[in-house]
Amino acid sequence: MKSTDARIDAYIAKAPAYAQPILSHVRALVHRACPEVEETIKWSRPFFDYKGTMVMLSAFQAHCTVGFWRPEIRAMISPEGNAHGVGQLGRVTSLKDLPTDAKLIGYFKAAAKLNASGVKVVRRAAKPKSALAVPPYFQKALKAHPPAGKAFAGFPPGKQREYIEWLTEAKTEPTREKRLATALEWIAEGKGRNWKYQKS
Where are any strands of DSSP class E within the chain? Predict the structure, then answer.
């Protein structure tokens, strides 16, 4: 295989034993279908690019997923609509769960051809989310903590929503109280709910 990335070698080596032959096999087929493909790591996962993203792989504890970037390829695989989220081939737990090599190579070749043609990937516009009501206990806590209250009021709706959802999803009162204390601290510092995962 040409244009291999040592980070993908490492990803496969660290994957669960069941996943290693799946990842290696799909990787080899991508290279057979498109010898000019370039490997990279994005979002901590293997990606295969040729004049744009073609496909990505993910290995989890009990299954792998193969995700195609272009909606045209997803439609080829599942004309009635994708029922598997990002992994259009479903939960792959062994080589037997994959389509035939010929089918997979066909998908990869079609993806490379579309990318080479310059046809842009058209993303459906996201539906605007309705505003979430701030729970009374959160309103009270923000009022009692002026720095957090002021910062929260200045947050865009999406940033506010992250905190509201985090608090309302707490299953127990102690968990909610712990999250609330943390939220007030982070909000007062101007931090979003997922600030730890955002690039500085």
Answer: 38-42, 45-49, 53-59, 64-68
Tell me how far apart the alpha carbons of residues 143 and 137 are, in angstroms, rounded to a whole number. Answer: 10
- Name the pLDDT band for 1 (thresholds 50, 70, 90): low
- Say how far apart CA 89 and CA 76 lie, in whole Å: 11
72 touches 114 (CB < 8 A): yes
CATH architecture of 6-117: Alpha-Beta Complex (3.90)
Task: Count other C-beta atoms under 10 Å from residue 120's C-beta.
Answer: 9
Task: Give pLDDT tens digits for 29-71.
Answer: 999 999 999 999 999 999 999 999 999 999 999 999 998 888 8
Domain ranges across the chain: 6-117, 136-197
Q: What are phi and psi of 130, to 5 degrees?
A: -70, 150
pTM summary value = 0.59
- What is the predicted pLDDT for the residue at 158? 86
Torsion sign across C-alpha atoms 17, 23, 25, 27: negative
Cα–Cα–Cα angle for 181, 184, 189, nearest 5°?
135
Closest C-alpha to 159, from 134, 136, 125: 134
Rounded to whole angstroms, the Cα distance separating 107 from 105 reads 5
